[in-house]
Amino acid sequence: MKSEAVPYFPSLDDAIASLFGGGIKILRSDRVAGGDINYAYRLALSDGAYIFMKANTKENASFFAAEAAGLAAIAKTGVIGTPHILGRGIDLGRGGYSFLLMEFIKSGERVSGYWETFAYELAAMHRAETANFVDGGIYGFSGDNYIGAGGQENVPYESWTAFFRDCRLVPQFKRAVNYFSTAELKKIDRFLEKIESVLVEPEFPSLLHGDLWSGNVMTGNNGKAWLIDPAVYVGHAEADLAMTELFGGFPGVFYDAYKEAMSMQPEYSSRRDFYNLYHLLNHLNLFGRTYLPSVMRIVNKL
Ligand code: ADP
After folding, report:
1. Which letter does DSSP use for residue 149 in this model?
2. 211 is catalytic
3. Are 112 and 79 in contact (CB under 8 A)?
4. Largest Cα–Cα distance of the chain, in whole Å?
5. Which residues of the chain are under the pLDDT cut of 50?
6. In 3D, which of 268, 262, 279, 218 has the Cα closest to residue 122?
7. What pLDDT was estimated at residue 288?
């Protein structure tokens, strides 16, 4: 991954000139709704092309370095739609801002068999070679990244179950410590002692999207699912599938097709809540105590 660094530009004008040629200008920029962390824009270029830009404060430039690395990893598998990254940078104009430029996904009508195709392509991504994505271990990623606005540690590990406990659950529990009573903290300690025995090592490691809910899937103009806004790392594919079920879920045909394409280990459903505990803890830390009962319901299962 490191050899394919995303181009960095010292200004937006410099990025446009370097990527598209000196004569090309931004004719207009239109806000795109939908994101909850960054400002998003469709930039119309003077040659008639559109590109997509995310912007944030210059202090938050690391969000875009991480997002670019994640999208590039998904693109590297070559099996599922994801926007091609053009570059990133920090522009000192208008008080200073960081930006990320990528291919603009033109929305299209869903093809027939959309959900089955999405499931097969996701399974293919989960079966892709992962060795290039982690330095010095099997699980993790080549750098830390973000899950929403929360930091996500990607220390290389040889064991999935230890990685999930130490790099996913423990940092979130630590961040959330003030939400819990002394009795609850004792339960959490016991939970963390037992969690490795109820999770399983996967048959093979998988590149995960990491934040796979419907808001991070777009329909491209090829009518198929495109993945955006990832929190990638190498882990157990079950963790991605679990997250799809957390906020509403996809239609049954998606799960049937996924299970046909990916040989699932027995009793996935008994592990699903433990994977989703990570996302619920992240929501507790980002959005507050409404998520506390859902967190404790899962902690109390062990
Ligand atoms: P945030 O990082 O703020 O959560 P998102 O990545 O979710 O932002 O993007 C905000 C919205 O912009 C998405 O909901 C989607 O509608 C749209 N979007 C994201 N990426 C692209 C793209 N490459 N091309 C066109 N539209 C996009």
Report:
1. T
2. yes
3. no
4. 66
5. 1-3
6. 262
7. 97
